[in-house]
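G.,

No rush on this.
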Amino acid sequence: MLSPWPLVLLLLLLLHPHRSDGDGRLQIQELTIDEIQSAFAEGTLTSRRLVEFYLDRISALNPVVRAVIEVNPDALAQADRADAERTGLPARRGRGLHGVPVLLKDNIGTGDRMNTTAGSLALVGSAVRRDSGVVERLRRGGAVLLGKASMSEWANFRSSDAPNGWCARSGQGKNPYLLTADPCGSSSGSSIAVAANMAAVSLGTETDGSIICPASANSVVGLKPTVGLTSRAGVIPISPRQDTIGPICRTVSDAVHVLDAIVGFDPRDSKATKKAEKFIPEGGYKQFLKVDGLKGKRLGILRHQFFGYDKGSISNKTFERHFETMRQMGAILMENLMIANASAISDSFVSGESTAMLAEFKLSINTYLSSELTLSPVRSLGDVIAFNYKHKHEEQMDDIDQMVFLAAESTNGIGLNEEAALNKMRRLSREGLKKLMNEEALDAIVTPESGVSSVLAIGGYPGISVPAGYDEKGVPFGICFGGLRGSEPRLIEIAYGFEQATKVRKPPVFESKGHLHI
């Protein structure tokens, strides 16, 4: 039962969403990073004031939407330090994420007083050796670590039956547009919080769909980078072959600011980051935020495989309007294209993805638990399984709720079956998306929501989800632009051009019926 005060504050914040700063003019809620930095420079906003605003939002909204597991006890101190640096070090004024609050998915390690648990009770009280690679970069840039976002526990890899957005530490995450709607996962809290203006920007992780899907479901921008473009060091792993860390934000511009802050070589993830380092453009990614970014782009519309056949649905009518807008903005639409073997790729058992990931998870999680933590109640996947059985009433689970863990525990490294699965995925990628894009000279493919996530996942390919519309109940859906490894510059141009031409996103607002929706 919620106490009356959070409910009252919830109503006040949501009925008056554009909370003003002390001068009565600045509207904080939907500020972009560029606007935040301008306000810092003008002296109309401080990092402390911004952090206090988000802490108030979290206090009011989190009992309802459960997007945040814990706030950083040092967030205000970090904000004060950023304000002092801004005054004393002119070179840091208006730069990147300096002084900007960032919410982190709870599998991204921080060597501070916060937990890193992947939403599980099994890792509460554990201590990581040091910051993850991406957090080191955020700290160097002067960002404020606001807290840890809730997530689908163990990145949706404990059980195929667990609901999206549920974890033992925070309960069920709720879609802020309609509380009964699927928030998707596993970066559910990162998406919910940004959508509901509980954080300026956030980081999520994706192995297969975990950024693109919750971004689509919560009407925010999710950017899944090429695998290796961002370091995975210090992040609780699923599959080193597919894991990637990326921004979840309200705008494409904000996502690009965050991407610029976290990309680059990391000796702790040397093999992947060295291979991807060649893709990082000189001057960063902000240069590709072009209003006319759609002009001349060849876009492959995968209509029959992903858009479905109900032409009368709200989403398909909306997408048809978007296609016309793209044409008007100068894009060249290649209609009715198909990815060879897309149906095989989308079935993780047929493609071999499940076979490979079960073995990869056991190997990588055992390494993480045994070597990355200075203190931990569990040191292996077997220990986690035993913990879950022992505390199953607290975890609200039964045997079926860790059947993926049990399947992973039964594996024994990368054997003949796993090698065959890896070879099959490489062939499916080579003969599928890669062949299509090369033959049609495409800059990107275009699909709805997150249906293409497995195609991108098995190839280590990037994708960007941008808000595209809302159904008859007000539930959001996104549009996804995907490409080959290193194609972020073109994807950013396309996504930004689309966003600026359509301006779809609306923040969720409170209604007296007792739910949040458009």
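When you get to it, here's the other one too:
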Amino acid sequence: MSLPPGFLDELRTRTSLSQVVGRKVMWDTRKSNQGKGDMWAPCPFHQEKSASFHVDDRKGYYYCFGCHAKGDAISFVRETENVDFIEAVRILAGEAGMPMPERDPQAQAKADKRTELAEVMEMAVNHFRLQLKTAAGQPARDYLDRRKLGQKGQDRFEIGFAADAWQGLWDHLKNKGVEDDLILGCGLAKPSQKGGKPYDTFRNRIMFPIRDARGRCIAFGGRAMDPNDNAKYLNSPETELFDKSRTLYNQGPAREAAGKGQPLIVAEGYMDVIALAMAGFGAAVAPLGTAVTEHQLQMLWRISDEPIIALDGDTAGMRAAYRVIDLALPLIEAGKSLRFVLMPEGKDPDDLIRAEGARAVQALLDKALPMVLLLWKHETDGREFDSPERKAALDKTLREKIKLIRDPSIRGHYGQAIKDMRWQLFNPRRTPVARGKGGKWQPEPTARASTKSSLLVAAGDKAETHLREAVILATLLGCPELIEEFEVAIDRMECLDRRHSDLREIILRHWHSGAEALKGEIEARLGPDALEKLMSLPHVALTPSVRNAGDKDVARMAVAEELAKLEAERGVSAEVSEAAEDIVGIADEGVTWRLGQAAEARNRAVRSQQEDTTEYELGDNGARINRGEREQFEALIDKITFSKSGR
């Protein structure tokens, strides 16, 4: 019946939820605070000893942290008294002293028809079950035996058989006095296009009743016995009772099993669900011949926070998994997600259970993949990323996927997870998961061998490089968002100092988290003194980009300038190293000239904080050269024994 506006609000206002629930539970007096309407008790919907069932009397809602049952006074009466919505309202209205409104004739007529349709469906269930036991049902029984579905399973899931006859069910129901419009309204028969009697929808099929959450049979699924039939599986058409996009096979029993702690498993078909349930995985459901819909996804999350999608290990199964991911990304929220189990190639859950038993399924469930890993697998499996363009294409695709996530916190965590996996894919020489004592990273030394052996480094000239690196790292800690602009250059920084290398790795991996979270990560992994040592360096502390932390423009200029200088120094070191490798006890004037040019190039790139007071001279090519450094380098050259020789 239809209720007038405001009636339910008034009913809820007059009803004390704690009094309604208190008739069914024993309150935990230690946890409960009756004065605030904050009440706790063991859950009446599943067996437990702890008080995980919470009633907020002021808001009028209950929630169980064990089985996730939730609702208001009306839903509590419906579930505990096994009555429909209107009857629950009537019970509460009587207790609250509120007269029930007059019935709406149209709404009542519709409700009455749905009740009649459900009764006809139950008659069909009983007819199909009897047909399975007849001689005509022998091939169907043989098939079920081959699938190892014995009498216990057949009875539990009420499996039946539709005989290979055009009006077998129709005649049976008509003999019971059922009206034509009810049979047709249930989707059990179709009108003849030739003016004859309607004919049965299901013929020569094994029948699986489909029940709603309340246990009413609302539809059937039929498995064809004829291998040449156009449709191997056929569902009832949509009716007043049945909307396949809003229905899950085995929903009611699965909800009960999930409430007792079993994992909610989403399989592809009836036989998979039945096989899982008979093997002990009672919280198994399946969509009805279509991809999972948004409404079904919300139904799954009302049963379990993290359903496990178990799909066939073939191409079609993988495609189905990726469709579910695309559907779920905009809908996920904190605590509500999906995990995925991929069956062995060519097997579904039913095949796996018959071949290897329940332990094989449990082993796969224990290794269920979070959604982010399957998303990564989809975009990277079987592909090469050997060019900047391909890497950029991957980045673009993943960014578009992550943008679908509405929750900013989850979006950030997905971004970090993708970045971690991307890091491992493109930087296998520095695996970020390698850890040492205390959980701190122990990355491989990142300095190149040629840099370590260069003459300039051997001469002790890495102090200035160390300072430049320190300035860059300290600046980025104040403006971590700049990493996106300079990521490639920062990754190329050679970081001769181990501490700088560790800092660089953490910054690159966690810059998405923000400045404060990044500093906390550094302290957690490298100790509380890591940042203090970096910031206490005089050259760092006086740098404008560090003094004005957060000024993005100043920070951008500083990082760009210091990186340019490091790049210039790297080029000089490579040139000197190459020249040094050519000196094997003998050298010619060409090598001497190359060393001189390298020295001049180095002096052009290096400018210290005391640049204005440094003495300069002009080199052979007119360049201004730091005299002290020129003398130091020439003294180094003098130590090398040269002799002329041809090459």
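Residues 334 and 410 are 7 Å apart (CA to CA). Confidence is low (pLDDT under 50) at residues 431-460, 583-588, 607-626, 639-647.

Enjoy the weekend,
O.
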